[in-house]
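Field: COMPLEX_INPUT
Field: COMPONENT_COUNT = two
Field: RESIDUE_TOTAL = 1584
Field: MODE = joint
Values follow.
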Amino acid sequence: MATVEDIGVSAAFNILVAFAFLLAFALLRIQPINDRVYFPKWYITGKRSSPRHADGDFVGKFVNLNFKTYLTFLNWMPQALKMSEAQIIEHAGLDSAVFLRIYLLGLKIFVPMAVAALMVLIPVNVSHGTLFSLNKDLVASNIDKLSISNVRSKSIKFFFHILMQYLFTFWTFYLLYKEYDRVASMRLRFLASQDRRAEQFTVLVRNIPHVSSYSTSDSVESFFKKNHPEHYLCHQVVYDANKFEKLVQERNRLQNWLDYNQLKFERHPEKKPTRKNGFLGLCGEIVDSVDFYKQQIKELDKKLTMERQKILKDPMSIMSAAFVSFSSRWGAAVCAQTQQSKNPTMWLTNWAPEPRDIYWKNLAIPFFSLTIRRFMISVAVFALVFFYMIPIAFVQSLANLEGLEKVAPFLRPVIELKFIKSFLQGFLPGLALKIFLLILPRILMIMSKVEGYVAISILERKTSAKYYYFMLVNVFLGSIITGTAFQQLHAFLHQSPAQIPRTIGVSIPMKATFFITYIMVDGWAGVASEILRLKPLIIFHLKNMFIIKTERDREMAMDPGSVDFPETLPSLQLYFLLGLVYAVVTPILLPFVSVFFAFAYFVYRHQIINVYNQQYESAGAFWPHVHGRIIGSLLISHLLLMGLLSTKKAAKSTPFLFVLPILTIAFHKYCKNRFEPAFRNYPLEEAMDKDTEEQSSESDVNLKPLLADAYLHPIFHSFEEAKLIEFRINKSQAHILSRLGNCSFSPSHDVHHQKEEPSDNVHHYEYELPGNVYQYESEVSNNVHRNDIESP
Amino acid sequence: MATVEDIGVSAAFNILVAFAFLLAFALLRIQPINDRVYFPKWYITGKRSSPRHADGDFVGKFVNLNFKTYLTFLNWMPQALKMSEAQIIEHAGLDSAVFLRIYLLGLKIFVPMAVAALMVLIPVNVSHGTLFSLNKDLVASNIDKLSISNVRSKSIKFFFHILMQYLFTFWTFYLLYKEYDRVASMRLRFLASQDRRAEQFTVLVRNIPHVSSYSTSDSVESFFKKNHPEHYLCHQVVYDANKFEKLVQERNRLQNWLDYNQLKFERHPEKKPTRKNGFLGLCGEIVDSVDFYKQQIKELDKKLTMERQKILKDPMSIMSAAFVSFSSRWGAAVCAQTQQSKNPTMWLTNWAPEPRDIYWKNLAIPFFSLTIRRFMISVAVFALVFFYMIPIAFVQSLANLEGLEKVAPFLRPVIELKFIKSFLQGFLPGLALKIFLLILPRILMIMSKVEGYVAISILERKTSAKYYYFMLVNVFLGSIITGTAFQQLHAFLHQSPAQIPRTIGVSIPMKATFFITYIMVDGWAGVASEILRLKPLIIFHLKNMFIIKTERDREMAMDPGSVDFPETLPSLQLYFLLGLVYAVVTPILLPFVSVFFAFAYFVYRHQIINVYNQQYESAGAFWPHVHGRIIGSLLISHLLLMGLLSTKKAAKSTPFLFVLPILTIAFHKYCKNRFEPAFRNYPLEEAMDKDTEEQSSESDVNLKPLLADAYLHPIFHSFEEAKLIEFRINKSQAHILSRLGNCSFSPSHDVHHQKEEPSDNVHHYEYELPGNVYQYESEVSNNVHRNDIESP
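Field: COMPLEX_OUTPUT
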């Protein structure tokens, strides 16, 4: 058992680590050479194109020689606070702004709670405690003397604890309600203030039934023309382009090599770049590199053209999904919220996600398969959550010093040193857990993808939910039960339902020290390492040295990706759980949680302003989940306090505590009804307002150019030229007036166009739309990045 | 413990009772005097106006003198089968047809199951059983020798039981799927084939926000004109008319007395009917009755006019709800399925129920109150379900013969008679339960009304759900646990979750005899008493003798009401539960269940054709509940078999059984996604088809007359004359073309109209729309009937 001194040592150590990280960050961030690692957002928004502090001379390009800037090395903190919320929304989107509000909410909940609890509960717990009179060996730790464990059984003092629990619960209700209200109205205001965007007019239709004599495109058209005659505008079918995608990636690679060699040739015109034409450039004849890659690209383009024609011609490559666009937001809102077909598994309509948010591979999964997939994955998640406990318990039993000494007796002399013992006891269990948790998000993301969600934002939310359940069972419950005794696990499964809260309730105060160290290791030091960005820094410089050939490569290497919601949200929610559970039991934990929220708020504000670049905008769609989990934490805290007090023989108090979960559920239901629809539906009133406003400001709104290719698979963009798109729009507009009424990438006439002008066509495939390529590439790299690189 | 002989006696007794009831029914139904009790449906549909067998002479009017008809006294059974399903739908509505399908489903499930189980499981259970070798005193009953209890622990024979459980589960899946599919398509076809009806174009809007400067009517109009400009047609606000309703009832009573006296005077013109004008006609001056009632009605009409004007003028009497009608089914379908306002608790839209289905009193409950009401009621239902157990257990412990002898030792000589003992043991426990259950539906219906549902059909479904949960806990679980030992209840609450299915599983085979007698008492005899209609028969004749004064009174006394869904559906579902649970455990129960389903099918088919008159048509909306509860029964049966086998130490079988509940949940999820939307939404495709068809057949559809007063509170109809309505329609049509566009009972000009022609107005209030009055009266009496009269 850790004592107060252990906590002190651990706190000192973690504060030191955090400060070291902050200092390192302060020094590294002002070096011009690191500018692209610590301020990539400014490069991406185009407000900066070269390092800020770069002086004229050669050395100044890499190292900051202006020593004045070293003196003000902590000035990032006030800088991070300068931007107002409205500016952050404009700069980084609503998701980021709402994300920061979670930290603020944590502060608002826990700082007043900490003050109240320390002023009222600590004196109540300390005075005339039971634990002072006990033998020193039996007393778990000094921390316990400040906790509810120190109050005698049947004491009248529990009245204070119950009163405080009521106060804290109502305080949390008040803040949650205010916050939900605010976030919901922020979301509606944000959606209302958005410019005209393709997703406002578009609905994703899935499970289009296959009628043998019609093509998918034709049946979509006739169905929506019939059932939404006044609002249907056009549609875009979804192609199965997985093979094509691979070819495009290969072409991008070759294009990159070509650019590199051309650049090399421009800089040193005296030396023509050459390479061998054999396997991996290691054997074969020596040839001119530029010519070689040009030749290769030409061959690949031919393949691409053929593959593209095959996709467009072959009805098998058209998936049973389509993006249907409407002439008004009202029409799209109606279609997204209603049931279309008599068979409710056909013609399923949902709001289309933003084009950049779509996870294309999942668009074609049929309905029946979805049901089965989700069911299988929920069984798998259950297994993962519950059987992952065993390795964690094993590692923690090792991290227990007595266990470690038994396993490795030769370490005893080292461990027995007082300082090292304190250090290990404070640090090891938290660290072991943390390492375990790092490899997990990848698996969970894959699981979510198997479940078949079609938007990256939804995938991230689902992953985050799975991760939270994992943490709840394994970090929270697992630490409480296996930490004290692994044997309890078995007992736990064979107990009566009424017994479970009691078992956990009793263990809760004993584990306070563990969770305090956990908050320091995972929270404090973790957040400090977040701002240092050590891994991206190293990777960027390594890439800069070995891989980066062109400016485009540098941009890709610099790309910071989005805030990692699947990992940060669940751990954030775990801190809410810890704070709420321990608020009454061991109030000394609250200042630690509050410090975490404050520090993390600064750090993430800085990161969102300077580093991260959101890949999608869900307009705060994750808020209902955050809200729901804080409510869940409240319920858990009520249940555990009930269990704890029942072991303290304060049976008369149970009826008072029984009211709290009922109130909490009622509050949750009310909030759900009141606010959640704002996150699911787009109200018709809003849609109509926006339509009317737009019609009055612009007399003749032409939506076609906006919708033309918004929902075309991004790889088709990558080697189209702007002209071709325009040509297609014009052509399809003429077309709409005739029979088809389809603003999409229409297979038939497109193929025809290619046949007429084959020479023109080859020309189109030259690399002329870097923006589009970049967009796509960044999406892919974002996924790869999250799944493969960030984990150790 | 009941033996096979007890069961035999009980069966014989119940069969005798059932036959006695059937014989009585056969004799009573052919008496002309009872014709209105046993064939009211034919009077209501207008196909019969006087008794069928009534001969010319005086006696023949009351007693059937045609002795030939006595010889074929069982011919109601083939008669009941003559009507085809399509004819039943036309004759009695889809609800009734779907209701009958539940009995057929029961037969389809249990008859093949019974055959298979008796052929396979009974030989397996009987051969080499453990129970033969035991002491006679310890053996519970001979029935047990046919059950799974007779199989030795760890026997390989359990393989047969698991195999049969799989077979039975898949058989049930197959039938459930087919049936859900069929009912869903029947529902869609029924809705598609319906004539134009007000509810197809109308949406119920609740929680209309109050804007101080606008009236509710104006704000409804402006809101829907703005947000559904192409589809909004008109609306009808809802008035708070509870006081008015009482006056109308009083007026109807007086009108009835007037009719009676006028009739009397016509028949005996020589004797003028008189009465005293004082208290209850017992004191005061003697006056001419006709004049007296005419005078009274005149006075009441003045009051009514004033009250009516007050309601129409006073903005406080307009509730925050309205019925909004659209010019097409498509428009209404869109409005019903979408979110209207930014604030999701305002402007809530749902399909309007049929006018006759509306429960007017609940229309004005605000949203916030609804959340709280539902929450409170769910707590109350929980309390009722779980604490009602105590009196039942008490009564059952009395019904236990040993207990009874202890409580009343003087009864011992009577009880110890072998025949009476068998009778009591077989009959008493079931009877005690039945009496308990009879007073319950009233309470549950009141609870559902407090919850604030706005349609009678929903109220009945919710009551039926509550009743089912009650039966599940108290009849099923309660009998199993308290029946064997009341002490187990306490133990049950203090057991581990894994232990509960084992505890119940062990008791299950022991309670088979109890449930067999229950099926005979509640099922066989209960259904036979259903066809006899003893209570309605007695009440009708009593009313006929003492109360009935006019033809209208006779019609009211004859009114059979609807099939009592809140009581019949849950008990039906309980039989499914019993059948599925005992199919493998004690297969001898299956024939009893099958006989019940067959017998009940005949009886209810006869009753639906000849007796009941549905008060509303929900197009089979209760089917998802029936399906869901059969799935629930399957899950319970799997769980209990698992528990039972684990006590039989057939531990290796558990993995096989574990798959079943998972499959069942997956099947349920699939069915829910596949079929349930057909019961909740009206697909746009369907709406558009219907609209188009109608437009092509009738070039100029005028919906105004249809929608004009469809959703006016029925009491306002009761003293309007047809002319006045027409006048209003014409006037409001003119009106619509001008500013208001409102086809409703518009307060302003109606009041105006009354002021202009006061003399004309009094004339209007004369009783001229008996149909409407009748309709309303029957609705009220239906409620009263269900709640007050039918319970003992």
